[in-house]
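[recover] target loaded
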């Protein structure tokens, strides 16, 4: 197993070589402390997500875990090598070695994007309005427009009172109408990042009086004000003139930032190279999810524009890779391209003519969410046996019925008497049993049968044979349990969003977000925000380092 030292990792990160850095612990563990810029890739999702995250098999990949007795990174590296990746390394000593070199860890998720948002706020002087001031304006019936720029799903749950839906990069189409209305505009998200980016985007698109609502819906709740439930004011729709104006202005911004336009045939060629394992390529469809589900470019990922800026580390593991943004008329893709280029991503393009141009050339589309399947699914289905009812009873009696899904799913619903053994800890738990693990192999169960089979398959590759899975465990006659047990630790392995975790969690999160620019200054990996100058050119999109 190839290992990489702390110094070698630093050199790799500072080079122009295509590489990816993965934290293979569960997301909540990474959330509590990780290396800045790492992509969270829990072992249980590795076989499912790696194809979308790293297309070129020769890419340098580094994986890490806590270090010490934690062997997750080693098992993850073995899986990557088995899946055909040729340059996989484990960080020697894991996070222990990182800390021993007096390096700091970052906490939280999507840190690079949230740091970028706070940097935009600091450098561009993005105007904000406090919750109390907005509430006073509303009480006084001041003419204004409040725009919820989150997703349609978030808007449908609850929003700041009187807000209309104006989701993410869709704002580019609405800017001219908002200008003509001549009223103050307030944009809000759940916290800070998306509203900061949206506010600055509207300023770049010519809207003079626009404000980001300070701390978003969390700030609203922290002031003791109720969110508006029910259907709300509805979605703000652009006029034809506003759509055309937004397209022109957004395309100008993207061009000035150095983003290119890529013809459909050229994108098809790039997709074929990715499929052959010779190119790192991210094709991001920045329309709303419902539009994506109706029809999309095969091999693309649904990531609406506002989220594309906020979640780059989740979807773009190789920063030097080619990125192609897909829209229907280039407006939203162009605005997103501007921001990705401002973040320092070097190879960004927009699909010329959008999805209609792709379809006009007779190229195929798909419907639905088109989520990637695990590369191990077929092998696991073929090679991992299903336990009989008698074998399940024997496993229960011996404390060998193991639930290998997330803790939250275990607590929500599980076979009564099963024990929680996290996917990433399975081999270590087997090793702790010694020969008994081979003499009386466990039976594995998960919410999705495929995950249990993948866990058993991984254990088999590590030398533990004979492990079977329990299927159809949620039937009408099943003996099920839910809720906490003494055997399950209080610390979860899944991130609970601050707006779902109570008021104190919201306060702590917002304090953390507002100090990001200071905390990350010495750890900076992404290019600091700088508004691209007009006329700046960039012409190396199709180059492969």
């Amino acid at each position: 197993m190839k290992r990489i030292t702390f110094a070698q990792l630093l050199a790799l990160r500072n080079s122009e070589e295509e590489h990816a850095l993965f934290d293979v612990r569960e997301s909540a563990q990474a959330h509590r402390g990780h290396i800045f810029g790492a992509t969270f890739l829990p072992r249980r999702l590795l076989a499912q997500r790696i194809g979308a995250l790293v297309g070129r098999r020769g890419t340098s990949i580094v994986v890490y875990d806590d270090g010490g007795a934690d062997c997750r990174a080693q098992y993850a590296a073995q899986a990557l090598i088995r899946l055909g990746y040729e340059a996989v390394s484990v960080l020697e000593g894991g996070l222990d070695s990182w800390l021993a070199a007096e390096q700091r860890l970052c906490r939280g998720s999507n840190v690079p994007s949230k740091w970028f948002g706070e940097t935009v706020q600091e450098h561009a002087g993005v105007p904000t309005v406090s919750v109390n001031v907005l509430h006073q304006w509303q009480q006084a019936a001041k003419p204004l427009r409040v725009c919820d720029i989150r997703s349609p799903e978030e808007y449908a749950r609850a929003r700041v009172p009187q807000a209309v839906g104006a989701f993410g990069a869709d704002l580019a189409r609405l800017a001219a109408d908002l200008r003509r209305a001549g009223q103050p505009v307030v944009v809000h998200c759940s916290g800070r990042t998306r509203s900061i980016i949206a506010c600055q985007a509207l300023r770049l698109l010519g809207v003079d009086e626009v404000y980001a609502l300070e701390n978003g819906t969390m700030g609203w709740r922290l002031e003791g004000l109720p969110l508006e439930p029910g259907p709300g004011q509805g979605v703000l729709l652009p006029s034809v003139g506003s759509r055309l104006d937004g397209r022109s202005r957004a395309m100008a911004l993207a061009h000035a930032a150095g983003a290119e336009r890529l013809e459909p045939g050229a994108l098809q060629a790039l997709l074929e190279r990715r499929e052959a394992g010779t190119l790192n390529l991210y094709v991001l469809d920045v329309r709303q999810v419902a539009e994506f589900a109706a029809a999309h470019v095969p091999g693309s990922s649904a990531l609406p524009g506002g989220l594309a800026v906020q979640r780059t580390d989740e979807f773009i593991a190789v920063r030097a890779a080619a990125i192609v943004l897909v829209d229907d008329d280039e407006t939203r893709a162009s605005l997103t391209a501007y921001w990705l280029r401002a973040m320092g991503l070097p190879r960004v393009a927009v699909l010329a003519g959008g999805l209609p141009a792709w379809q006009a050339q007779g190229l195929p589309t798909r419907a639905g969410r088109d989520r990637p399947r695990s590369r191990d699914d077929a092998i696991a289905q073929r090679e991992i046996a299903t336990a009989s009812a008698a074998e399940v009873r024997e496993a229960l009696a011996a404390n060998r019925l193991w639930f290998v899904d997330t803790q939250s799913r275990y607590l929500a619903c599980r076979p009564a008497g099963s024990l929680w053994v996290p996917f990433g800890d399975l081999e270590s738990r087997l090793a702790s049993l010694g020969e008994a693990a081979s003499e009386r192999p466990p039976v594995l169960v998960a919410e999705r049968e495929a995950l249990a089979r993948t866990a058993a398959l991984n254990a088999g590759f590590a030398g533990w044979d004979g492990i079977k899975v329990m299927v159809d465990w949620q039937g009408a006659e099943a003996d099920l349990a839910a809720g906490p047990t003494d055997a399950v630790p209080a610390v979860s392995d899944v991130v609970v969003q601050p707006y779902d975790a109570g008021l104190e969690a919201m306060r702590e999160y917002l304090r953390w977000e507002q100090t990001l620019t200071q905390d990350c200054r010495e750890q900076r990996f992404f290019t600091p925000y700088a508004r691209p100058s007009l006329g700046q050119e960039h012409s190396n999109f199709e180059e492969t380092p």
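[recover] notes: The first strand starts at residue 3 and ends at 4.
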